[in-house]
């Protein structure tokens, strides 16, 4: 069950709501995603969704009365407490209609944010001018009245919320703490300090809301890649429909400048595609008939007829949206710790403040007013928002930075794991190699004739090696069409045929040995096809799955980022695996493996390399078990299978191993920022608390320790990764 909480921006309140919902007997587990303003709730057996929703609504409104509570479904969302005109338009049944959650956000939030922004500027402008006037007249009655008026402008809503919450039985929230500390400051004659504390508190609140909204927009901006319609070929011509109405096998038409709505294969036309939204790559990619294309790409310069290969719900663009939207909800251990810490921190500090105000005067260590002033400073420092908000924002900013580079990280915990990876295990085919056979060497006196003879014999085969030879020949000539006779497939050896009365042999070493043809054996890496004509050896052609471009540089970059060992697993022959491992300077390799062998090898490596975290990088459906079994599974998103992508924790959208080094950098920078925020926030707060207890801290220092630290921590969280 997913509940939408429109308007929730307070991290401290979110933690309290989460705790209260978790205490419900109908809820097994509740987790709030503040950036998305949603709460995922696992229901207990037999619990009714509507009853739980009503209880959640009461809990939310206890802490945040203005937050609208909604039940979010995949197709639509029913908003409660929403005041937009669309929601109050009567339909045929005179009930509020359902509409898409993202559409609602688009039409509802934009004008509200503009109005709120104008009110904020007006508030701070008027309040600030009155405060400055009060400073100049501070020793007069007019100055006192101006201070009170300025305090009312900045703090009326805080005082009102504090009063309402006390009546509801919710005492120790930030509104109460801020009200008590500032009213107390006024009572002991610190008027400027009281106004300034309230003003800075409001600045901090506004900045926190801005930071959350900015991070949220980094998600909603991705909605731009979600297509709204598709032009499908029908018996009556081209018809524009919603993408989910298009079936597999249907043909769609995509004009220049339009976004491709569904995954498919080009049947007619060629064009350049902008794939930046999916892969982070700025350079366009050329496509032609036979090319596979992914939804979300922009057709830059040509008209394309595409045959759909996946339904809309399983398309690349929908998978990306689902993964990125869910990413912020998967919290890291650090985030969970900070949430638990905040629940304890505030009550402890409030308790210490009460003790500081009462115990010393009772024990005869000074006047009550002096210790009361120190206790007020304690209260100002007691809000944990700097931690509760900046830590999740740091992780979400890291996830956003990774997605812009074509790296989809499925959660903060996965980002944490990524920065601790010390050992990488790679699948070979499609991961380290291009996953496609091609001719890598032709050895013989007459190379063109050699290739021609081989292409003639392989033209009718659909074997990958045969296709590679024919494709190589087509680069210099058209498809071989010469008539051959006596074509025979020699099982386990190769093929033979006659051309102009001369017998041609294509095959392996055993074929030539059987036919007593003298030849020079090939000793390198790859699949070799020997060619003989009229009993004479003509040469050989080597076909291999070639390494990806820039792979050596990518592996070097990974070592520079702290990867200690690189291992390759493959089902290929051990000789080929060894040669490739030596070429890439890998630390280990395993060849001739079955899918179940890969899982066994992974377990052995995990036992051997116990101190470090291990990631597996793969692309095929047979890699799904080992992707799930590794500390971190990394899938190739462009050509990877759906099963591999589902099982993985990180997806490389453009299949570029070099992006892993970028992901490691982002993950490690995120971890550094999180640590900086924790140490900085706790350090400053602890220092000011100690100084206030001994009478060396002022209210100004307390304001910096609360609002100032929160603003700096949020700025640090949002800086470039």
Write the layout of secondary structure elements.
Blueprint: E1 2-6, H1 11-22, E2 27-33, E3 38-43, H2 49-63, E4 68-72, E5 77-79, H3 101-136, H4 141-167, H5 174-187, H6 191-220, E6 230-234, E7 237-241, E8 251-254, E9 264-268, E10 271-274, H7 276-279, E11 285-287, E12 292-293, E13 298-299, E14 304-308, H8 316-327, H9 333-362, H10 368-380, H11 385-404, E15 407-409, H12 412-419, E16 421-427, H13 428-432, E17 433-443, H14 447-458, H15 464-474, E18 485-490, E19 494-499, E20 502-507, H16 509-514, E21 527-533, E22 536-547, H17 551-560, E23 565-569, H18 574-584, E24 588-590, H19 595-608, E25 613-618, H20 624-629, E26 632-636, H21 642-647, E27 650-652, H22 658-693, H23 699-718
Parallel strand pairs: 16-23, 16-25, 23-24, 25-26, 26-27
Antiparallel strand pairs: 1-3, 1-4, 2-3, 4-5, 6-7, 6-8, 8-14, 9-12, 9-14, 10-11, 10-13, 15-27, 17-22, 18-19, 19-20, 20-21, 21-22
Helix pairs in contact: 1-2, 3-4, 3-6, 4-5, 4-6, 5-6, 5-10, 6-11, 6-23, 9-10, 9-11, 10-22, 10-23, 11-22, 11-23, 12-22, 14-15, 17-22, 22-23
Quick structural summary:
This protein has 721 residues and is α+β, with helices and mostly antiparallel strands. The protein is 50% helix and 20% strand.
Oligomer: single chain
Q: Given the C-alpha coordinates, what overall shape results?
A: elongated
Total count of strands: 27
- Adjacency order of strands in the biggest sheet: 15-27-26-25-16-23-24
InterPro entries: ATPase_P-typ_cyto_dom_N, ATPase_P-typ_P_site, ATPase_P-typ_TM_dom_sf, ATPase_P-typ_transduc_dom_A_sf, ATPase_P-type_domA, Cation_Transport_ATPase_IB, HAD-like_sf, HAD_sf
Domain HMA: 1-68
EC number: 7.2.2.21
Keywords: ATP-binding, Cadmium, Cell membrane, Hydrolase, Membrane, Metal-binding, Nucleotide-binding, Phosphoprotein, Translocase, Transmembrane, Transmembrane helix
């Amino acid at each position: 069950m997913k509940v939408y909480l429109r308007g929730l921006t307070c991290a401290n309140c979110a933690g309290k709501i989460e705790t209260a919902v978790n205490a419900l007997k109908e809820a097994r587990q509740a987790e709030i995603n503040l950036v998305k303003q949603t709460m995922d709730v696992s229901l207990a057996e037999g619990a009714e969704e509507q009853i739980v929703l009503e209880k959640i609504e009461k809990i939310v409104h206890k802490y945040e009365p203005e937050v609208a509570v909604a039940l979010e479904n995949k197709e639509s969302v029913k908003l409660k407490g929403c005041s937009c005109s669309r929601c109050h338009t009567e339909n045929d049944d005179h009930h509020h209609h359902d509409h898409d959650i993202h559409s609602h956000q688009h039409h509802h939030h934009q004008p509200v944010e503009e109005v709120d922004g104008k009110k904020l500027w007006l508030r701070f402008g008027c309040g600030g001018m009155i405060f400055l006037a009060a400073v100049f007249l501070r020793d007069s009655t007019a100055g006192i009245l101006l201070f009170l008026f300025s305090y009312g402008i900045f703090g009326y809503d805080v005082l009102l919320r504090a009063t309402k919450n006390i009546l509801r039985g919710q005492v120790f929230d930030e509104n109460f703490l801020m009200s008590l500390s500032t009213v107390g400051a006024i009572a002991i004659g610190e008027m400027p300090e009281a106004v300034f504390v309230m003003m800075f508190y409001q600045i901090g609140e506004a900045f926190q809301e801005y930071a959350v909204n900015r991070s949220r927009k980094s998600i909603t901006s991705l909605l731009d890649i979600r297509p709204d319609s598709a032009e499908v070929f029908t018996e009556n011509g081209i018809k524009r429909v919603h993408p989910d109405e298009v079936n597999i096998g249907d043909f769609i038409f995509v004009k220049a400048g339009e976004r491709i709505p569904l995954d498919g294969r080009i049947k007619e036309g060629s064009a350049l595609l902008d794939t930046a939204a999916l892969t982070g790559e700025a350079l366009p990619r050329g496509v032609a008939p036979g090319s596979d294309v992914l939804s979300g790409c922009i057709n830059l310069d040509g008209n394309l007829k595409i045959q759909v290969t996946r339904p809309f719900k399983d398309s690349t663009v929908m998978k990306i949206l689902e993964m990125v939207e869910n990413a912020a909800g998967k919290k890291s251990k650090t985030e969970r710790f900070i949430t638990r810490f905040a629940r304890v921190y505030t009550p402890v500090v409030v308790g210490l403040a009460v003790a500081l105000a009462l115990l010393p005067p009772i024990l005869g260590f000074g006047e009550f007013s002096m210790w009361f002033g120190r206790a007020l400073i304690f209260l100002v420092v007691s809000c944990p928002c700097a931690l509760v908000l900046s830590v999740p924002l740091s992780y979400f900013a890291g996830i956003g930075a990774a997605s812009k580079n074509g790296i989809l990280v499925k959660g903060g915990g996965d980002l944490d794991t990524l920065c601790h990876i010390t050992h990488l295990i790679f699948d070979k085919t499609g991961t380290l190699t291009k996953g496609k056979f091609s001719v890598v060497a032709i050895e013989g006196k007459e190379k063109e004739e050699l290739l021609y003879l081989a292409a003639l014999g392989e033209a009718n085969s659909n074997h990958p090696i045969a296709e590679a030879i024919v494709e190589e020949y087509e680069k210099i000539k058209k498809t071989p069409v010469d008539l051959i006779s006596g074509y025979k497939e020699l099982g386990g050896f190769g093929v033979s045929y006659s051309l102009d009365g001369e017998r041609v042999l294509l095959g392996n070493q055993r074929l030539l040995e059987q036919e007593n043809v003298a030849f020079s054996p090939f000793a390198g890496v790859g699949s070799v096809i020997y060619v003989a004509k009229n009993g004479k050896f003509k040469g050989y052609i080597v076909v291999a799955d070639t390494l990806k471009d820039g792979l050596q540089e990518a592996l070097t970059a990974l070592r520079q980022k702290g990867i200690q060992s690189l291992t390759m697993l493959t089902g290929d022959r051990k000789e080929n695996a060894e040669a490739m491992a030596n070429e890439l300077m890998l630390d280990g390799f395993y060849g001739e493996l079955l899918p179940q062998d890969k899982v066994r090898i992974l377990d052995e490596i995990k036992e051997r390399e116990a101190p470090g975290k291990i990631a597996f990088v793969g692309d095929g459906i047979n890699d799904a078990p080992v992707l799930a079994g590794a500390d971190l599974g990394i899938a190739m998103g462009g050509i990877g299978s759906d099963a591999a992508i589902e099982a993985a924790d990180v997806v490389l959208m453009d299949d570029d191993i070099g992006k892993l080094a970028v992901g490691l950098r982002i993950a490690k920078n995120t971890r550094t920022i999180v640590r900086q925020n924790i140490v900085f926030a706790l350090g400053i707060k602890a220092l000011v608390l100690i100084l206030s207890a001994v009478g060396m801290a002022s209210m100004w220092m307390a304001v910096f320790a609360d609002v100032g630290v929160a603003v700096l921590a949020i700025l640090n969280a949002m800086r470039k990764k």
